[in-house]
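Ticket #4471: complex job returned nothing on first submit. Input attached below:
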Amino acid sequence: MDFIEFLNSKDVAEYLRKINYKFTPEEALYVIHESRTCTLAQKREAYTQLLAQFPDYKLMERGFGAFKNHTLASFLDTYFKKQDALIDECKRAGDAAYSFCTYTSAEGWIRDDGSLFRTFGECLLAAGDDEEVEKIEIVKKYLSSDRFVSLTLRRDGTILDVGSSERDDEVMDAFEMLYVEIPTPFRFGDIVKPVREKVWDSEFHEQYEDVCVLTYLPQWDEKAAADCDPRETRMSAENYAEAVRQRERRLKEGDETDMLYAGYSVTEHGFVCDHSVWGTYLDLEYFREEPAGRCRILTAISLYLKKKMNLETLFAAVRAIEAEETKRELWECSLQGYEEYMKQIKIEEEKP
Amino acid sequence: MTDFTRFLNSKSIAEHLRKIDYRFEPEEAAFVVHEARNVPLSEKHEAYGEIIANYPDAVLKKRNGDFETQPLAEFLTKFMMLENEYVAECKTPSPNAAYVYSVYTEDMDGNLFWFDEDDVIYGTYEECFLAASGEQAAKIRVAKRYFGGREYVELYLLPDGTVLSVDVGGKRDGITDGFDWFWISLPTPFRRGDILRSVHERKGDASPDFVVLEKMIHWSGKELADNGFVDSKGKPDRDRKRNELDFAAWERANLRHKESGDSSDMNFDGFEIDSDGNVVWDVYMTYLDYELCLDLPKDKKALVALSAFMKGEIAEDLLLNAYRHHTLRAALAKAEEILPLYTDAGLETAGITARGGRDEEKRELKDET
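Support reply: We reran it on our side without changes. The output follows.
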């Protein structure tokens, strides 16, 4: 088993297959854990395969005591037992109430409107009532406490994931303490977007603000990144040495918060923002949709960063996009129904 | 006799009714008392009691709701009894229900809004209220939610536990939602072109409405004439180049509302400025929850020009130039919102603030944003 199927990003998976990349056990551990589409049973099967493929060895201790005094086998054994205990706990009614969220591809995750249930079974039944529902999250909340246990399931009840409010648990939190540098196909100036599950009512956020022109990945060789950056002055020898030191530190002590990517994104109103997100660079995919609206500003920035467009044209492109978008918005908001008048004053409809 | 104007949520309407020494009809008084959001339930019940005592013969006619024609006194007595029962029900723990709370609290700009705090669920009213009262809140809502359905009983409270109002869901007693079927037309001080601001309680980040009034749904022929929609004979006033109005149709609709309109028909129409700076005409609910507005936020200032135009104080040239001016100012303010993301040094390097520690300029910029 090469564990590549557990990656959420098709582009990263395809690239790793192409270069025939082999995960280290820690990389495989992280990738299996982060998978959002595989069932818990499939993940367990993969962890078991991992044990079969690699001789057992002592894991390196990470921050907050993660993996301390554990070999790969002993860690996974403890992890499975804790997960099983949480599953039992979530299904067992007690001094608690249950609530749910549902997921459909069309609308993303939607929180139910405040209904509460006494048992796991009643909650699952109500949550799965709608045939469109693909996934369900059931949360068991203890009364007068911020403690909760949650299960994410398919509509047929197959468990996908287990969660809880437990913090400072060196086994359940251990994955957050991992830092892995896995190669990706992405280059400076590529337009990318993380594969994420939509959350209802965040349409704009999903559509635009997640899309970014990539300017940083932690595993990039700093010099290579600097070489293709049109702002040649950006990486001085001093900065380069510091970047190398930082990278050495990350490899030794880094955790999920160091696995960030950065780039430029564009807001609803067309402002360009420095965008950096941690923990998710492995979820990036190329943004293949036809860029629309103000998102086209990102295409212009990408062309500029890849040295295919000069600075003067970048300014002109951004102004042209802004003018077009303003006109389109006016047609959507104020001019519809007044086409006759617009014809008289020679204003043509801006088709979306 | 109780001064019913103190129950109104709109200070402008309350002041106007006091000024004209308005005498409420019993149905109007009952509706206004019910809608009050900041008066304790005990005082509302006292006021209902006074309506019952002073108007023993008042009749509540059947409307579109579940209740039949009945004495108003009978309706109000049942209503108070049910409210008291729901208060007791909410405060009594049940094995088939749990509690959550929301707080009416200030956002970063000092505006009040309702925030749902449902991460923690409680087994009793006391535990839930105790947790809620630990927060900085102007008001609290404690909701008792029944397991496995949509039934709930909610109490709106002051931080000291005084009950302000009761809301229930999923119950059909024919009485609790009775006031939803009322339609009342109280005089207001509002005139065409006035800038109004909603006093609705906000939920989440919804901003309050700022509207330039076109016309109220319950205006009479005289009020329409006074506001330039029709002349004294009920004909559209063409000289003033305003919207034409079919007066006969207007009168028919007004009659229909008196017979069978409900609280969702207590509307007015007007213009607002949306978040992109467009002027938008719309219909706004619950005219009783609007006040005259004297202080507009920056991105709504164009409404001042629209108001002046609708009152005949300025002509089209100044209206359009003022609109352009205000729209550009609002766009600049929006552009400046992004600046605090950058350091002072960065802003200086980019030429947005002057080089050399122009602290005052930076302060002004930060104040504005």
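Residues 160 and 250 of chain A are 31 Å apart (CA to CA). Closing as resolved unless it happens again.
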